[in-house]
Specification:
Strand content of chain B: 35-45%
Largest sheet of chain A: none
Oligomer: heterodimer
CATH topology of chain A: MetI-like fold
CATH topology of the largest domain in chain B: Rossmann fold
CATH superfamily of the largest domain in chain B: P-loop containing nucleotide triphosphate hydrolases
Radius of gyration of chain B: 21 Å
CATH class of the largest domain in chain B: Alpha Beta
Distance between the termini of chain A: 52 Å
Structural class of chain A: mainly alpha
Strand order of the largest sheet of chain B: 7-8-9-3-10-11
Number of domains of chain A: 1
Number of strands of chain A: 0
CATH superfamily of chain A: MetI-like
CATH class of chain A: Mainly Alpha
Number of domains of chain B: 2
Helix content of chain B: 10-25%
Number of strands of chain B: 16
Shape of chain B: globular
Chain lengths: 225, 297
C-alpha cells in the first residue's frame, strides 16, 4: 500500500506556499512593473535568483541562516521561539523563496502587458492606486494570476534539494513526496518509489495541461476582441 | 462687454524627445470659462504633452497651472496635485476603456463614491448608448467606443475636459457625427474643453479658439476661421483667384489666394510648394470646410 502522508504533506506545503505567495507577489510585482526606482533591477535579479541557483546552494544558505547555531536562527529560536530547521514551518519559508519567481514573473508580465492607458484612465477618473489595482488591473491580469498560482504550486510540489537541506526526512513533518521517492530508491524499494513517482508525474502533467489550456483559451478570446 | 473670467492658467516647460531630436516645450496660455480650445500642429509639436501635463500624467521641469483658483501645479513650491485629485475628464486617443466592464459599469466606476447616480441614464441617453449599456466595449465599433469614452470622462462632472485626438481613429462619416456628440456634451455640461486635433474640419466645427503648436512653442492663437478660413459646407462653390503669396507655417505650405475680393489661405503640403508661383491663376473650392486648390490655369 502507498503511504499517502508524504503526498499529503507535499500538497499542504504547496497550498500554504501558494496562498502566501499570492498575497506577497501582487504588491511586489505591481511595484516592479510601475516603479522607476534605481533598486528595481537588483530586486528583480534577486527575485529570479532561485530559478538559476542549484536548489542545494539555496538550501545550504538557508540551513546556515536558519540553524540555531547561527545568529539569525538563534534570534528566532530564543526570542520568538521559532525553529525553522527540520520543521514544516521552515519548509514553508524556504518554499516561499524558492517558488517566488514562478509567481512574480507571470504577474509582472501580466502588469507589463496591460495597456498603460488603463492605469492612467483610472487615475483621471479620480481613483486611488489601490482602487485601480483592485478593480481595474487585477481583473485584467486574471490569466497571469492563475498561471502564477499554478506554477508556484507545481514548483513547490516538485522541490527536492531545498527540502533535503533544511527539512531532512522526518515522516509527517518534512518527508514530502519527492524526498520519499529518494528514500525508497535508497532502500531499493523500487515499486514504492515508482508509485510516488507516477503520482507526481501525473499530477505535474495535469497541472501543465490546465495552464496551457487556460492560456490557449485566453489567447483565443483575445483574438476575438 | 466684459471678457469672461479666466478659468485656466497654464505655464510649463519641459524637454521633449521627438523623432526630430530634443526640443524645449515652453507654453503659456490662459483660457476663459466654457471655451473649447483646439490644439493643432505637426506630430511631435507637444500637443499631447500639453494635455498630459494638464492631467498630471507627465512631469515638467518648471510650471504653474491654476484652474478656477485652485493650484494644480506650482513647480517653484514643488507642488504637484496628483491626477486623481484634479477634476478632469480625459479621453485618450485609444479610448482606454476597461475591457472587463460593461458600458454601464464603466460609467458607474467613473462616479465618485457618494455621487448622484442619476447622471448615468442621462449620459446613456445623450450619447445614445442605452441599447449598448450591458455590452462590454471590446466587441463594439470605434464610434461606439468613442461615445463610451466621452460619456465616462464626463460622468464625474469634471471642470475641464481633455480630448486627445478623439476622432482620429474613425472614418470621415463617423467623425462628423461624433463631433456633434462632443459639441453636445461640451455645451450640456458647461465644460471648459481642450481638444487635440489634426483635422481641420473638426476644429472648425467645434473650437472657439485654436492654438497652433510647433516644436513645443505656440506659433499662433486665433479663432479657427482666421487661421483656416471657411465659408461653409458648400462643395460646389468655385472661386477663381490668383496666388499673391506663398508662406510656410506649422509644417505646411500656405498659399494666399486673392479671390472674390478676399484673401483665402489654402493649406498645401510643404513638398508641393515648388509647384506654385506667385501670380498663378487658380480655382479654389471647399471640401469639408477646407479650401483646396481645384486646378490651376
Amino acid at each position: 500500500m502507498i503511504d499517502w502522508l508524504p503526498l499529503w504533506l507535499s500538497f499542504r506545503l504547496a497550498l500554504v506556499t501558494t496562498t502566501i505567495l499570492l498575497v506577497l507577489s501582487i504588491p511586489l510585482s505591481y511595484w516592479l512593473a510601475y516603479t522607476r526606482h534605481r533598486w528595481k533591477v537588483i530586486i528583480e535579479a534577486g527575485v529570479s535568483l532561485p530559478m538559476v541557483l542549484p536548489p542545494s546552494v539555496l538550501g545550504f544558505y538557508l540551513l546556515l541562516a536558519f540553524s540555531p547555531a547561527g545568529s539569525f536562527g538563534r534570534l528566532l529560536d530564543q526570542y520568538l521561539d521559532i525553529r525553522l530547521v527540520f520543521t514544516f514551518r521552515g519548509l514553508v519559508v524556504a518554499s516561499l523563496i524558492y517558488s517566488l519567481p514562478f509567481m512574480v514573473n507571470p504577474l509582472l508580465a501580466g502588469f507589463k502587458n496591460l495597456p498603460p492607458h488603463l492605469l492612467e484612465a483610472s487615475r483621471t477618473l479620480g481613483k486611488s492606486d489601490w482602487t485601480t489595482l483592485r478593480r481595474i488591473l487585477l481583473p485584467n491580469i486574471r490569466p497571469s494570476l492563475i498561471t502564477g498560482a499554478i506554477l508556484a504550486f507545481a514548483h513547490t510540489i516538485g522541490e527536492f534539494g531545498v527540502v533535503m537541506m533544511i527539512g531532512g526526512s522526518i515522516p509527517g513533518r518534512t518527508r514530502v513526496a519527492s524526498v520519499a521517492i529518494y528514500d525508497e530508491v535508497q532502500s531499493l524499494n523500487y515499486p514504492m518509489a515508482n508509485r510516488y513517482a507516477a503520482v507526481l508525474l501525473l499530477f505535474s502533467f495535469t497541472i501543465l495541461l490546465i495552464v496551457y489550456s487556460i492560456n490557449h483559451r485566453f489567447s483565443q478570446s483575445k483574438s476575438v476582441l | 462687454m466684459t471678457a469672461p473670467p479666466t478659468c485656466l492658467h497654464f505655464q510649463a516647460t519641459k524637454s521633449l524627445h521627438t523623432a526630430q531630436g530634443t526640443r524645449q516645450f515652453d507654453v503659456t496660455f490662459d483660457l476663459p470659462q466654457g471655451r473649447l480650445l483646439a490644439l493643432y500642429g505637426p506630430s511631435g509639436a507637444g500637443k499631447t504633452t500639453l494635455l498630459r501635463i494638464l492631467a498630471g500624467l507627465t512631469d515638467t521641469s518648471s510650471g504653474n497651472i491654476v484652474m478656477e483658483g485652485d493650484t494644480w501645479l506650482d513647480h517653484s513650491r514643488r507642488f504637484i496635485l496628483p491626477t486623481r485629485r484634479r477634476p478632469i475628464g480625459f479621453v485618450f486617443q485609444d479610448f482606454a476603456l476597461f475591457p472587463h466592464l460593461t458600458v454601464r459599469q464603466q460609467l458607474e466606476y467613473a462616479l465618485p463614491k457618494d455621487a448622484d447616480r442619476s447622471i448615468i441614464p442621462d449620459l446613456l441617453t445623450l450619447m445614445e448608448l442605452e441599447t449598448l449599456q450591458h455590452h462590454r466595449p471590446t466587441l463594439l465599433s470605434g464610434g461606439q467606443q468613442q461615445r463610451i469614452a466621452i460619456a465616462r470622462a464626463i460622468a464625474r462632472r469634471p471642470r475641464l475636459l481633455l480630448l486627445d485626438e478623439p476622432l482620429s481613429p474613425l472614418d470621415a462619416a463617423m467623425r462628423s457625427k461624433l463631433q456633434d456628440y462632443i459639441a453636445k456634451a461640451h455645451r450640456h455640461f458647461h465644460l471648459t474643453t481642450v481638444l487635440v486635433s489634426h483635422y481641420l474640419p473638426e476644429i472648425h466645427a467645434l473650437a472657439d479658439e485654436v492654438i497652433i503648436l510647433d516644436e513645443g512653442k505656440i506659433t499662433s492663437r486665433s479663432i479657427p476661421s482666421d487661421l483656416f478660413p471657411a465659408t461653409g459646407p458648400i462643395d460646389n462653390l468655385r472661386l477663381n483667384g490668383e496666388i499673391t503669396a506663398i508662406t510656410q507655417a506649422y509644417g505646411a505650405c500656405i498659399l494666399h489666394v486673392l479671390a472674390a475680393g478676399t484673401t483665402i489661405n489654402v493649406v498645401a503640403s510643404p513638398d508641393s510648394a515648388s509647384a506654385w508661383r506667385i501670380g498663378q491663376k487658380v480655382t479654389v473650392a471647399y471640401r469639408d470646410f477646407n479650401p483646396v486648390i481645384l486646378h490651376s490655369h
